[in-house]
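Notes from the pairing session

We agreed to fold both candidates in a single pass and log them together. This is the raw record for the first candidate, unedited. Please don't reformat it; downstream parsing expects exactly this layout.

Candidate A
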Amino acid sequence: MGKKEDYDDEEMTVELELDDGSIVNCAVITILPVNEKDYIVLLPLDENDENEDGEVWFYRYSENPDDPNEEPELDYIEDDEEYEIVAEAFDEYLDNCEFDELPEE
């Protein structure tokens, strides 16, 4: 899976090349440390840079400590138990986030 990082004033995004060769632009939600490993949470975006369904993707994330300029590695989480642990950690992350109050109409 290929990836390219783009830095924006508002959010960081990555382009993922999927197994079928298609490219998906994703917003980086966070990088979670779980059980001494790092995981990245991505929000896939459509052609309008929106996500209507709220689906997020989890990947194992690692950087080369010897070369900070090398692109990070993203790996599929194939183990269901590992995936569930990461999903629970993300739920806890969301519970601890402070969301902006909705404007009153």
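Candidate B (folded immediately after A)
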Amino acid sequence: MNLDPSFLDSILAAWDLRLECTRPEIPIQGSPERCLDRVVVRAGAADWILEEFAVGSLERKKAIASRLTHLSRHGLSVAAPLPGGDGGLIQRVHGRNW
């Protein structure tokens, strides 16, 4: 992944977040092949996993994100996705899906 701060900041803007730093010291659990690329970033005084998704996986990723959001809203402690500024769970920035 392009870790250039201005590139990452432009992606995070879709969620109304500003990049503070990347967090390479934080290991990401789970299978790395579930997405094209991923990185932990610090933005909005919190740590987030930013993942890039392949076009062919978008419907499945949206369904998973919707289920996680539902569980979170009903009090279960899950890593729920943050909706973008437009309310969508997946954002398209620089011609790529995040």
